[in-house]
Amino acid sequence: MNLLLLLPEDLVGPGVARLRGRRSAHVREVHRAEAGDTLKVGLLGGGIGTARVILAEGATVELELGELDQPPPAKLPLTLVLALPRPKVLNRVLASAASLGVARIVLVNAWRVEKAYWKSPRLGEDNLRLQRVLGLEQAVDTVLPELVLARLFRPFVERELPALAAGTRCLVAHPGAATPCPRGILEPVTLAIGPEGGWIEPEVESLRQVGFTPVDLGPRILRTETALAALVGRLF
């Protein structure tokens, strides 16, 4: 945790925040903070600054906030359209995407996405927010990436994706594509990454019909979180 990210519900008075649970334990056990110590903090959706520990007893930590006047880092001009990963992978991918600065994440269905994935408790609102928060804490950011769930592939691609991708360069990662993935793009991008088994050809064709260019990252087939990091690093 490189940033102690405060939530609006943590504020218990003017300039005072109270923490319990995961973040309180981190402050006490990892930072080993005591009353009088200063920590780097940010407010979700707001600025970054410092806070002074005024209480660290039992399971509770209270902080006196200083000026939170430093802006968070700018988001990448990137919309990520991601075939819903396996539940065990979903948490890592969301945290990674948030830490990389992805501005918008769309979790979409695909032929090789098992129906059971959509029933996972990891798709609960609290978990989806927590994983993105963990990514922000790692990257010293305060702004959550927007998150959209699209349970039906074709209706999403045909009816919603064109508007989401308007004004961006549209790319779909697809092993074996004739076009290599470009480098150092200086424009907004909408990037579609399939399941670990890949998009099927009709899905690639549907994306092509709404303006997406299939691009190849190389001969190796990568896990979702590895492909995400490799593609973002190459594009930006």
Structure description:
- With 236 residues, this protein is of the alpha/beta class.
- It has 2 domains: 62 residues, Hypothetical PUA domain-like, domain 1 (Ribosomal Protein L25, Chain P, Beta Barrel), CATH 2.40.240; 160 residues, Alpha/beta knot, CATH 3.40.1280.
- The protein is built from 6 helices and 13 strands.
- A 7-stranded parallel beta sheet has the order 9-8-7-12-10-13-11, sandwiched between helices. A 6-stranded mixed beta sheet has the order 1-4-5-6-3-2.
- Helix 2 crosses helix 3 and helix 2 packs parallel to helix 6.
- The relative contact order is 0.15.
List the helices and strands and how they pair.
Layout: E1 4-6, E2 11-13, E3 16-19, H1 22-29, E4 38-43, E5 48-57, E6 60-65, E7 76-83, H2 87-100, E8 102-108, H3 125-139, E9 146-150, H4 153-164, E10 169-173, E11 179-180, E12 189-193, H5 201-209, E13 213-216, H6 224-235
Helix pairs in contact: 2-3, 2-6
